[in-house]
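Why should sequence recovery work at all? Because a backbone constrains its sequence more than one might expect. Tight turns favour small or flexible residues, buried strands favour hydrophobic ones, and helices have their own preferences. The token representation captures these environments compactly. In the example below, the structure is given first.
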């Protein structure tokens, strides 16, 4: 298995902070918001009422029912609460879904650049990870002909991620429909990572589960970290066909037993969102997106298109005259701005840098000022070359 670049950069950034350095953290995909007061009150009340016991392995029935209602309201999906399994975070949900479905030697198609856990988990389970490219020439949309060409008799699963990390791409209807047709034709599982589904700008969202033939072969991975700013609560869930639900429940029995009871009560309140916390947060991300992308495009050697969703700026640094790793080293060590070199998300990300704009406007403005000042280092190398 492999590590995760964001966490490595974060560790070095915290080390510099401990030495008294000022660091602007744009490396982690963590909203700078917190859950609304009613969510905190729900958790506190649940604890006060003694809801800190073992509970149902698949999750509280009330939470699973509320997730089903939420998915209908926000994605127009009709799913049964019986098809939902609560997990201790989306990474755990992703890991256990792949554990339930993959055997050694099975091939898994996944996006490159993409979340590094896809390939890492597959390899850890003895499967074979097979990337399909997300190219700037195609606006980081999957190329259906390439995906089709990479399907073999050993292919077991396609992983999709829309909106995507790190590119922020929202797959088009044509692409998703094409992927669904390939999955049906070759009898493949589809693992649809929809953790950023609510963080989307100026367009409608369609889940892979909404396409013809997908109900019996699609697993949705989602949770509370991004859309509800509950990263440290470690709450995720899987929507799966009945036979997979049984396997996930068996894995839960043999691993984490159940998710903390009081956090699940708080999650119900988060889904209801009586205070409008999620729309308000997304509106703020939209404002930051416009400002931050505009400002980054003024930095010599940087090119960045506004993302369709999520909260990442995926910056093409080929015109900087140096590598993404060197750009990130200069930014962190000399300018105090933490960002991720794109190769951390796969070989096709090597000419890019990922910045998270899940930070305050003031921080983003200060970060660009520091980046612009530090850009003299790579401007000089470009002139010399």
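From this structural description, the recovered sequence reads:
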């Amino acid at each position: 298995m492999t590590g995760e670049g964001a966490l490595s950069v974060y560790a070095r950034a915290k080390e510099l902070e401990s030495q008294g350095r000022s660091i602007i953290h744009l490396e982690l995909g963590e909203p700078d918001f917190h859950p609304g007061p009613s969510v905190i009150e729900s958790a506190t009340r649940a604890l006060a009422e003694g809801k800190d016991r073992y509970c149902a392995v698949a999750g509280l029935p009330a939470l699973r029912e509320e997730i089903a209602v939420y998915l209908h309201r926000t994605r127009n999906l009709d799913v049964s609460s019986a098809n939902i399994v609560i997990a201790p975070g989306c990474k755990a949900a992703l890991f256990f879904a792949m554990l339930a479905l993959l055997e050694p030697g099975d091939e898994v198609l996944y996006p490159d650049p993409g979340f590094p856990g896809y390939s890492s988990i597959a390899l850890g389970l003895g499967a074979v990870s097979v990337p399909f490219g997300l190219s700037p020439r195609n606006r980081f949309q999957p190329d259906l002909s390439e995906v089709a060409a990479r399907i073999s008799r050993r292919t077991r699963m396609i992983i999709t991620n829309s909106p995507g990390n790190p590119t922020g791409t929202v797959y088009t209807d044509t692409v998703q429909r094409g992927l669904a047709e390939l999955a049906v034709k070759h009898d493949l599982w589809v693992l649809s990572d929809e953790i950023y589904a609510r963080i989307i700008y100026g367009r409608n969202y369609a889940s892979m589960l909404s396409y013809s033939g997908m109900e019996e072969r699609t697993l949705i991975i989602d949770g509370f970290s991004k859309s509800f700013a509950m990263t440290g609560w470690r709450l995720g869930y899987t929507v799966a066909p009945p036979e997979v639900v049984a396997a996930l429940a068996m894995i839960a029995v043999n691993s984490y037993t159940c998710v903390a009871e009081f956090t699940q009560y708080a999650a119900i309140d988060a889904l209801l969102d009586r205070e409008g916390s999620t729309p308000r947060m997304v509106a703020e991300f939209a404002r930051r997106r416009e400002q931050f992308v505009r400002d980054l495009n003024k930095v010599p050697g940087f090119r960045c298109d506004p993302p369709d969703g999520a909260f990442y700026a995926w910056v093409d640094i080929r015109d900087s005259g140096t590598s993404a790793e060197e750009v990130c080293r200069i930014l962190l060590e000399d300018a105090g701005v933490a960002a991720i070199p794109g190769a951390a998300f796969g070989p096709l990300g090597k000419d890019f840098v990922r910045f998270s704009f899940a930070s305050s406007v003031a921080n983003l403005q200060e970060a660009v000022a520091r980046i612009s000042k530090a850009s003299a280092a790579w401007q000089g190398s470009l002139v010399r070359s």
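A few observations help interpret the result. The CA atoms of residues 196 and 226 lie 6 Å apart.
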